[in-house]
Amino acid sequence: MSFDLQQPTIERASLKMLAIGAHPDDVEIGAAALLTKMREHGHGVHVLVLTDDPVNSTTRRAEARAAAAEMGIPSDRVIFAGIQDGRLRADTDSVSLVRQLTRQLDLQPDVVVTHTQADSHNDHVEANRIAHAAFRDCVFLHYSIHVSSEISHFKPAIFINVSPDRLWVKDRALESYHSQVSRIGRHDLTKYEEKLGKLARLDRAEGFEIFLQYGADDTIRKTIGLSDSPFHRFWLPTVTEDTVTLLYELHSGWDSPETFMHRNIARDKLRQAFINQWLPYPLREQHSNTDEALAVTRSGSIVTVGGPQANPVARECQNVSTLVWTVEGGGVSSSARYLQNQKVGTRLYSSSPGNVRDLGYIARFENPFANGAHVVSVAGITDFAERAGVEFLTDPSRSPDLARIFDEHPYAQVVYSADADGLRIIDVQLPVTLANGGGGGYDGEDALGACHEPRLWDSCV
């Protein structure tokens, strides 16, 4: 299941992208949706084709220009290096030629899109090496070609949704290659992109490995912002200054081995998600009762795990923020803990006659101690509920309705019930601003998304 989402707010300065293909049609097969998205967002796109067919070069070049036009790329932004097909080598002559061609256009790309090395075609692998040798201070996005991909070690981290509109453009571009119908159709491109899409919980996607050269720090965040992956969409507003700090809950004398198991599994999954999908690795970690924890809270974005009694930083944030729900109670049994609506007094317990619920909340709100930074807060009244909340942070697409709330609203607090199938929304609190410009709070919204009359601190529970 996938869902259409609005693009998160990112820096809108224009990027200069160069898409490199070993052959005509490579760029369209591997990256047409990306190039279409770049053009739609006002970024500059050039295409460089490295080789010519010695028998059919005139036809192939005409097809490449026609395909580029379908993607909205003018013919004067399609460059041909003219190296003979099958003889591509990452040597001094090839690298110098690429530099000369781009220098003539005064093109210094921020992002270079080229082949992955996880490919069985020698020209594709050499194209990758040429690209990395020819350019500096760049972010590199590596695409795959379905007919030669070595899928076992292709490791995409950026995903572009092949939406119906982009698919129409991609199909039109590929149809321009009349001479390559049998090659393009040798394997099912639809099934291949559906396979890539599953990695990001999208119906169909193009996938890109991401590599960062030294000197491209200013570009990496904008590049990640292109991704349609729900993980990137959730975290992009929060990872400020390239870091976010995870602040652990405190250990208590009654923590059980099961408690430690849930916490360790959740933390490991969050670490691995950032390792796999974010450059440079942004996650820092601290216990929440240290001087270092207070320092990072005052300087940047943080993630707090555990309620006010288990996490001192979460308590301080809750004291001065506008969060509605909090975890109360404590003791050796999780049954002593409950969720409480601080404004209307409603309490939600983990168990009632005939019904046991693993309840928790996820919130994203402005860091009250650091301008421009954010807090992501997870707390549960059971160990499983808290783990499930952290696991949502590793893969928001597992609970699409909840992910949609955070995609459409930069700040929200969602109360959920966790089970093996995911998270079920119990209550949604969204921030509102008073009409007179003073103060703010949260407005209740039910799980179906129908807003109540806007009463400050209203709750639907």
Provide the descriptors you would attach to this structure in a database record:
2 domains; eight-stranded mixed β-sheet; disordered N terminus; seven-stranded mixed β-sheet; single chain; Rossmann fold; 461 residues; alpha/beta
Description:
The longest helix has 21 residues. The protein has an eight-stranded mixed β-sheet with strand order 9-8-10-17-16-18-19-20, sandwiched between helices. Strands 3-2-1-4-5-7-6 form a seven-stranded mixed β-sheet, with helices on both faces. Strands 11-12-13 form a three-stranded antiparallel β-sheet, with no helix packed on it. By secondary structure, it is of the alpha/beta class.
Quick synopsis:
With 461 residues, the protein is of the alpha/beta class. The protein has helices at residues 26-40, 57-70, 92-104, 122-134, 164-175, 181-184, 189-199, 217-224, 230-235, 257-277, 291-297, 312-320, 383-394, 400-408; strands spanning 16-21, 44-52, 78-84, 111-115, 139-143, 158-161, 205-212, 244-248, 283-287, 302-305, 325-328, 338-341, 347-349, 351-352, 355-356, 358-366, 374-380, 412-419, 422-433, 440-445. The radius of gyration is 25 Å and the shape is elongated.
